[in-house]
Specification:
Layout lengths: L10 E7 L7 E6 L2 E7 L10 E9 L3 H7 L6 H12 L2 E5 L16 H12 L3 E2 L4 E2 L4 E3 L2 E3 L4 E2 L4 E3 L2 E3 L4 E2 L4 E3 L2 E3 L4 E2 L3 E4 L2 E2 L4 E2 L2 E4 L2 E2 L4 E2 L3 E3 L10 E3 L2 E2 L8 E2 L4 E2 L4 E2 L4 E2 L4 E2 L4 E2 L8 E2 L9
Parallel strand pairs: 1-5, 6-9, 7-10, 8-11, 9-12, 10-13, 11-14, 12-15, 13-16, 14-17, 15-18, 16-19, 17-20, 18-21, 20-23, 21-26, 22-27, 23-28, 26-29, 27-30, 28-31, 30-32
Antiparallel strand pairs: 1-4, 2-3, 24-25
Helix pairs in contact: 1-2
Family: In the N-terminal section; belongs to the N-acetylglucosamine-1-phosphate uridyltransferase family. In the C-terminal section; belongs to the transferase hexapeptide repeat family.
Catalytic activity: N-acetyl-alpha-D-glucosamine 1-phosphate + UTP + H(+) = UDP-N-acetyl-alpha-D-glucosamine + diphosphate; alpha-D-glucosamine 1-phosphate + acetyl-CoA = N-acetyl-alpha-D-glucosamine 1-phosphate + CoA + H(+)
GO molecular function: glucosamine-1-phosphate N-acetyltransferase activity; UDP-N-acetylglucosamine diphosphorylase activity
């Protein structure tokens, strides 16, 4: 930032090189002066390879512009673009590689942030109030919170975080950057790998890979999240939105209830407050507050 101390720039924004301009606001530049921010351009149409990251040094008069903008989801971005047209706005480019600096655009980017935080900040510790059966195996960097209970024959392979008051049942496996927040119940015969369970998630036997479950989700026994395509191709969650991932399970909103023995296909997005009936197979995204059932017919002979 010292580079611009002698300039009369009205604002300074921070940018970084990116390989995926379609996810970000991209700077159009004249030297180090920003002349325009182009929102989410196609790679072939991007004015540069510099994305704007969430660090802004703004003059007070910017907020006069902001107050004149109709308020909405993108009111800040609109105000910034308007301000750039009539003011001297400069750019500082981060030298760190994009993969070394976490960002959050889509839900699956939480995995990048989680991995960054675990690598930088996670310290192995077992709180004194935790109750752990004698034959539980704990390897690597694992934090186990207050009043956690872990039952027999369970293995936890870090880095992992187990929040306060959580319960992990018999014969379960928690591994590889899994984050179980406070008051999570993982029943017997469960495998959780590279997944995020927010507060109060309850599940029983099943497999959960590369998945996110919002707070308060209840998941029936025998549910499986498929996290790899049969052809091992990139997982597409919506037309036109690339993930760059070949391993991604389900992303489920808060307070959704899932019946027993459900199968969730790679990359499905299930909204909040949904009800998924037992034995359902979910191939497509489901909006908030939707009841979804796979139809079966009972036959008596």
């Amino acid at each position: 930032m010292s580079k611009f101390e002698g300039l009369k720039a009205k604002a300074v924004l921070v940018g970084q090189k990116t390989k995926t301009p379609e996810f970000f606001g991209i700077a159009r530049l004249d030297g180090d002066k920003i002349t325009e921010i182009v929102e989410k351009p196609k790679s072939s149409e991007a004015p540069s390879d510099i994305k704007i990251v969430g660090v802004y040094l703004l003059s007070k008069d910017f907020f006069q512009t902001y107050e004149k903008i109709e308020q909405g989801m993108y009111s800040f971005e609109t105000a910034l673009s308007t301000y750039i047209k009539t003011n001297d706005v400069r750019l500082v480019v981060l030298q760190e590689k994009e993969e070394d600096v976490p960002f959050l655009k889509y839900p699956w980017h939480l995995f990048i942030i989680e991995k960054y935080l675990f690598n930088k900040l996670l310290k192995p510790k077992i709180e004194r109030s935790a109750q752990i059966a004698k034959n539980v195996v704990i390897e690597g960097k694992v934090y186990i919170g207050e009043n956690v209970r872990i039952f027999e024959n369970t293995t936890i392979k870090g880095p992992c975080y187990i929040g306060a008051n959580s319960i992990i049942g018999t014969n379960s496996l928690i591994r590889d950057y899994s984050n179980l927040e406070n008051n999570v119940l993982v029943g017997a015969f469960v495998e959780v790998v590279r997944s995020i369970f927010q507060q109060g998630v309850n599940t029983h036997s099943g497999y959960f890979g590369d998945s996110i479950f919002g707070a308060g989700c209840l998941v029936g026994a025998g549910t499986i999240t498929a996290n790899v395509r049969v052809d091992r191709g990139e997982i597409i969650v919506k037309p036109g939105i690339t993930t760059g991932l070949k391993s991604l399970g389900a992303i489920v909103g808060k307070n959704t209830k899932i019946g027993i023995s459900c199968s969730l296909m790679p990359g499905v997005l299930i909204g909040s407050d949904c009800l998924i009936g037992p034995n359902s197979v979910v191939f497509e995204n489901i909006e908030d507050k939707t009841a979804f059932y796979t139809e079966f017919k009972g036959i008596k002979k």
